[in-house]
Amino acid sequence: MSDTSVELDEQRRVYDNFYGEGGFSKTDPSDSKKCVLISQDWFNKWVSYIGRCRPEQLNCQSPSIDDCGPGPVNFSRIMENGKLKSNLLLDVDVKAITEDLFNNLSRWYGIDGLSSDIPWRDIYKTDKNEYTFDLYPPSIKLVSRENYANFVLNCHSHKTIGFVKSCIRKKNNLENETEIHLWDAQDKDELTDDETVTLKECSLVGDK
């Protein structure tokens, strides 16, 4: 058996460990702390490559990755200036894969670009006991109208208005009873004072 058939068999086995019939994920999200975003187009090419190349169809020599395979994992379709491009859709433009699968893919095909450009996402548990991640995690620039510290708050979209206010109080050594009001600088609207409302419900996702 050629090295190529062994490698393709391994890739099929790994794929089958992660995905069932129809491409549905078989992994338990609670088993992972992070996932990686890759181009859906690259993922589709990889799946096509390992699905159509049976061992009996291969020559003795390994097929060229450039001719048959998807090539190195390339993030240029989904990343720009170190950030995920705007308005991308999950499972249309972007595929979220587990850290273990990404490690395998990068070992087989390599990475085209800097490791610092890899878009990792934290997997977290919501208050409804559901595991999820943010395609565009909130990165909120908090600017005070008074003489308080300005800072950037990076968190997930299921954090609440109350959480943001607590971070402001902590950053500025304020008492817990200190009254704080928040405005969306982009829309010029005052945000709700209901501290149970999430950032996602306020449309505070991505860079704000």
UniProtKB/TrEMBL annotation:
UniProt cross-references to InterPro entries, sorted A to Z: DUSP-like_sf (IPR035927), Pept_C19_DUSP (IPR006615)
Domain DUSP: 6-123
UniProt GO MF annotations: cysteine-type deubiquitinase activity
UniProt-listed SUPFAM superfamilies: DUSP-like
Protein name: DUSP domain-containing protein
Species per Swiss-Prot/TrEMBL record: Rodentolepis nana
